[in-house]
Specification:
Length: 244
């Protein structure tokens, strides 16, 4: 059977394909890093922001998961899928401080959030909102800063309340959350919201297990179980990035 997979990437790709673990993905990502750098230069230019670099890695991971050695070279497949960086760069260069633009975006966000809630039977995750509106996660966080404040006492802190139910405090204190973003994009929409409201990602408020359960239609125990699973993934990626 014909294979276009380059010899340079054959071993790490085969290892990941045989056992698609975070560790094997990390090794494969290390081997294709030069391809990612070329894609960044091609589609993002010289001055690459941390957000764009993180997005490039996520695009590369998604491309790897759809790669077929019978169809093309791995480097070609990755480079083609990184064209989405052009959109990321355009979004980054938009003027963020215009009140008129914020107001328009708020209207779009509110309308889309209500529509998706009706369609899905639950509130959408931030990723689902970006897919539906075309707004970046960074833009969502910016828009949410201008929303009216929640009434005092309706939100609870995640540190120690209800038996220390939140994700590990060390997560929020890490100097780099690149690995947390990688985990986020591999979660299902429900777990994406749990991570958002546990770490305050993308401008979301921190919510207690009780509040998350009510928001997502789960039991508090189910929220706790999901948090434990997410924490294990965060710990894995944190360890990999620390050692890499």
């Amino acid at each position: 059977m014909m294979s276009y997979l380059e010899e340079t990437y054959a071993e790490p790709f085969s290892q990941w394909q045989a056992s698609p673990t975070p560790q094997n993905m990390s090794s494969l990502m290390t081997s294709v890093q030069p391809v990612i750098e070329r894609g960044l230069q091609l589609y993002a230019g010289k001055n690459v922001s941390p957000m764009t670099r993180s997005r490039a890695r996520r695009l590369a991971i998604r491309a790897i998961k759809t790669y077929d050695p019978r169809q093309s070279k791995l480097s070609t497949h990755l480079t083609n899928h990184m064209q989405g960086l052009r959109r990321v760069v355009r979004q980054e260069t938009q003027v963020m401080a215009l009140p008129e633009r914020v107001a328009l975006n708020q209207g779009l966000l509110t309308e889309t959030e209500q529509r998706l809630t009706d369609e899905l039977g639950r509130p959408p995750s931030s990723q689902e909102l970006t897919d539906a509106t075309g707004l970046s996660l960074r833009r969502l966080a910016h828009i949410r800063k201008f929303r009216p404040p929640v009434a005092e006492g309706t939100l609870q802190a995640m540190t120690g309340e209800e038996g220390g139910e939140g994700l590990s405090p060390a997560v929020a204190q890490q100097p780099s959350q690149q690995w947390a973003e990688l985990v986020y994009h591999d979660l299902d929409p429900t777990n994406q919201q749990i991570l958002e409201h546990s770490l305050g990602l993308f401008g979301q408020p921190a919510l207690s297990n009780q509040q998350l359960a009510g928001r997502l239609g789960l039991t508090p125990g189910a929220v706790t179980q999901r948090k434990a699973k997410i924490q294990r993934q965060l710990d894995q990626f944190s360890s990999e990035f620390a050692s890499g």
